Amino acid sequence: DGPVRYADLAVGELHDARVAWDDWSTPDFDDTAWEPVAVVQAEQSLLPFVGEPVRRVLEVPAERIVRTPAGERVVDFGQVIAGRVRFRVRGERGSVVRLEHSEVLDQHGDYFANIVGPNKDQTDVYILRGDPEGETWEPAFTFHGFRYVRIQGFPGDANPEDFTAVVTASDLPVIGHLETSDARLNRLHENVRWSQRANFLSIPTDCPQRERYGWTGDLQVFAETAATNMSVGPFLTRWLRIVRDDQLPDGQIM
Questions:
Q1: CA Rg value for the chain
Q2: Whole-prediction pTM value?
Q3: Per-residue confidence (pLDDT) for residue 251, from 0 to 100
């Protein structure tokens, strides 16, 4: 039993800090109440990981917190990213903070849940332990595609400096740069790099918020651009091996 009550890579995470053990991984932790481990037989072959690991590659501070026409508190990070939010909070024990993620606002400037289907919620939940000095949390087992975050249940005032968007991606070296005399073209190129960063997370995906699948069609039209922007050789080699492993005897890829 521990603080992570629910976690889904494509949906969100629920963390109850009231039952967290801060020192559970240290040698001095008293584990006498834990169940004894069971030794099981497992595959013992060791295979190297091909490609760059997924890391926290950037941090984007919140630009502002707005009150929408509907009265919601929404954090605006100024940029669509793939990752999660780290925030600081101080409040009573048992207070529940909800973070809902979206890429856009609606035509009125209100929060807009822009996806449907099984991954539609895009919500992280944190239950406070009530630390008088405050507490900081960042989900560990999920990520979202977002620019805007609706916050509910946040005690007291919410300030932009309390929120940081943590960008997660395969840590690919940037090798291509483009700078022109046209600011619009520069912004377009930067948008392409942000999109690549958001969709090159362990595998090349179609989007960072809905399906998040490694469809072959999306990547094949972008591969040349991807290789111009970043060093993607080992990354794509690993993905092609995964595709090969999924291939049926008749050539179909499932």
A1: 21
A2: 0.91
A3: 87
